[in-house]
UniProtKB/TrEMBL annotation:
Gene this protein is translated from: metG
Similarity annotation: Belongs to the class-I aminoacyl-tRNA synthetase family. MetG type 2A subfamily.
The protein's Enzyme Commission number: 6.1.1.10
Entry function: Is required not only for elongation of protein synthesis but also for the initiation of all mRNA translation through initiator tRNA(fMet) aminoacylation.
Catalytic activity line of the entry: tRNA(Met) + L-methionine + ATP = L-methionyl-tRNA(Met) + AMP + diphosphate
First-tier enzyme category under EC: ligase
Domain Methionyl/Leucyl tRNA synthetase: residue ranges: 8-368
Organism the protein comes from: Microterricola pindariensis
Subcellular location: Cytoplasm
Protein name according to UniProt: Methionine--tRNA ligase
Domain of life: Bacteria
Sequence motif 'KMSKS' region, location on chain: 305-309
Main subcellular localisation: cytoplasm
Length: 520
């Protein structure tokens, strides 16, 4: 399937004004599954994540907490954002912070280049600014405030009042790229995904593109504008550049050439920054635009976008402490159609954990291994003549291997997992129908028993490989119990169905122990 091509996947870099919640972790696990899948297909893979540390939002939070913004960012990164990587078992290759020298210096280089080539000019701007979004808002994007904010205009995303700003700033000639952007969306229909996101972006650009204010002079927490140190770079202009500064832009041409362009996964809240502003910036600098931008949906709690500011934020550890990182990764990626909004509820999580992970997959693995131990002294038996039922399982393994990879290429992560789950269900049905416990009672059916157990063990091996990007821990345990060679994540995922069990199995503890009560 793969020719060992390059695959670079990113998440947004997250603001360090607060600690992570499950919305941030959702994008992270999606990117992680893609990265692990591609690595297992032999692609030259790079997975980047990190933190966005400049701007007014961080400055205000730090000030309110009586520390410098750098101290605040250092604390949050070390105490909250880096620990998240372990909480949900991320395999990121790099973690960039926008306060690092490798980033700041090359943001300045990029800006200077645009200035020298005439894409930056001085101008004045007056408009409503939302510090939560770190963005100037159009009047049409605002709502009338209620309660404490009656009589004021509030941001539709943060429900907090916007501020009227009037500044003399540097501007990026973004409007010059409207035609080129529209041509890009036309020529490369997969550039912005899903389709609904593409339509939204196209109509936004068609309605007219303004130039973009890219500096601020009323505070100094940011990257200094190289030719005018009384200004700092607008936080979004600075932040977007992380995707190239992290892979060598301005300092290591070979690395940059090797990695860029990227697949960007972002929440739909920040789609325009990635699908409009970012490609325009790259076009101005004469660099390649991203490979694609995928805007996923929101996690909803009680029907609303989950957010810390609305006090509906749930910390990832609230879930992983009870259910584990595998269940976290599985639940959000399986239950939510990637690209659409999805409601989170503890009941749904608990129900899926029990029926799909504990009863569906975990129980299958335990039963099959226990039977090999009981009936064959732990030695994986060879297969005899195959029946249609055995051949059907082999066919499903083969189809799942191929179809899941195709779904991953389309970024349909939920579909890839769903396809693999057809094999879980088929194997459970196969065991029920073939009744190995009954075959074991009849010495004349010994060969049939061995064929059934061989087929089931091979199926489990295929599942271990195909699910390893998602269920990172359970599949490693299963692979060891099956006597698989080396680490499961080193087995080629596009050849998952080819694994032939041999040797001995070792006893397996429940992969997903039952959790009796809801964690609510
Ligand atoms: O926007 N559902 O950072 P941020 C799903 N620093 N995903 C969610 C979510 C929810 N309820 N809430 C947050 C920024 N997310 C900028 C990005 S990139 C150059 C700069 C996820 O900390 C989702 O990925 O506000 C969303 O886009 C991101 O967190 C916003 O994170």
């Amino acid at each position: 399937m793969s020719d060992g091509s390059s695959f670079f996947v990113t998440t947004p870099i997250f603001y360090v004004n607060d600690v992570p919640h499950i919305g941030h972790a959702y994008t992270e696990v999606a990117a992680d599954v893609l990265a692990r899948w591609h690595r297992q297909r032999g692609d030259d893979t790079w997975f980047l994540t990190g933190t966005d540390e400049h701007g007014q939002k961080i400055l205000r939070t730090a000030t309110a907490n009586g520390v410098t913004p750098q101290e605040w960012a250092d604390k949050l990164v070390e105490e909250a954002w880096k620990p998240l990587l372990e909480t949900i078992d991320l395999s990121n290759d790099d973690f960039i912070r926008t306060t690092e020298k490798r980033h700041e210096e090359n943001v300045q280089k990029f800006l200077q280049h645009l200035y020298d080539t005439g894409y930056i000019y001085t101008g004045e701007y007056e408009g409503f600014y939302c510090v939560g979004c770190e963005e100037y808002k159009q009047p049409g994007d605002l709502l009338d405030g209620e309660g404490d904010y009656a009589g004021q205009k509030v941001c539709a995303i943060h429900s907090k009042p916007v501020e009227l700003l009037h500044e003399k700033n540097y501007f990026f000639k973004m409007s010059a790229f409207a035609e080129q952007l529209l041509a890009l969306y036309e020529e490369r229909p997969d550039f912005v995904q899903p389709e609904s996101a593409r339509n939204e972006v196209m109509s936004f650009v068609r309605s007219g593109l303004d130039d973009l204010s890219i500096s601020r002079s009323s505070f100094d927490w940011g990257v200094k504008v190289p030719w005018d140190e009384s200004h700092v770079v607008y936080v979004w202009f600075d932040a977007l550049l992380n995707y190239v500064t992290a892979v060598g832009y301005g300092q290591d041409d070979a690395e940059f050439e090797r990695r860029w362009p990227a697949t960007h996964l972002v929440g739909k809240d920040i789609l325009r920054f990635h699908a409009v502003i970012w490609p325009a910036m790259l076009m101005a600098a004469g660099l390649q635009v991203p490979h694609r931008v995928f805007g996923h949906g929101w996690l909803l709690v009680g029907g609303e976008k989950m957010s810390k500011s609305k006090l509906t934020g749930i910390a990832p550890t609230q879930i992983t402490d009870t259910f584990g990182s595998d269940a976290f990764r599985y639940y959000f990626l399986r239950a939510i159609h990637f690209g659409q909004d999805g409601s989170f509820s503890w009941e749904d999580l608990h129900a899926r954990y029990t029926s799909e992970l504990a009863n569906g997959f975990g129980n299958l693995a335990s039963r099959v291994i226990a039977m090999v131990n009981r009936y064959c002294d732990g030695v994986i038996p060879a297969a005899g003549d195959m029946t249609d039922a055995d051949a059907a399982i082999r066919a499903i393994e083969r189809t799942a291997t191929a179809t899941a990879s195709i779904a991953i290429d389309r970024l349909a992560i939920h579909e890839a997992i769903g396809t693999v789950w057809e094999l879980v269900d088929a194997l459970n049905g196969y065991i029920t129908e073939q009744e190995p416990w009954a075959l074991a009672k009849d010495p004349e059916k010994r060969e049939r028993l061995e064929t059934v157990l061989n087929t089931a063990v091979r199926g489990l091996g295929t599942l271990a490989v195909l699910l390893s990007p998602v269920l990172t821990k359970a599949t490693a345990t299963l692979w060891t119990a099956l006597g698989g060679d080396g680490a499961v994540q080193d087995v080629r995922i596009d050849q998952a169905w080819e694994w032939t069990g041999s040797g001995t199995v070792t006893p397996l503890e429940a992969l997903f122990p039952r959790i009796e009560t809801s964690a609510e």
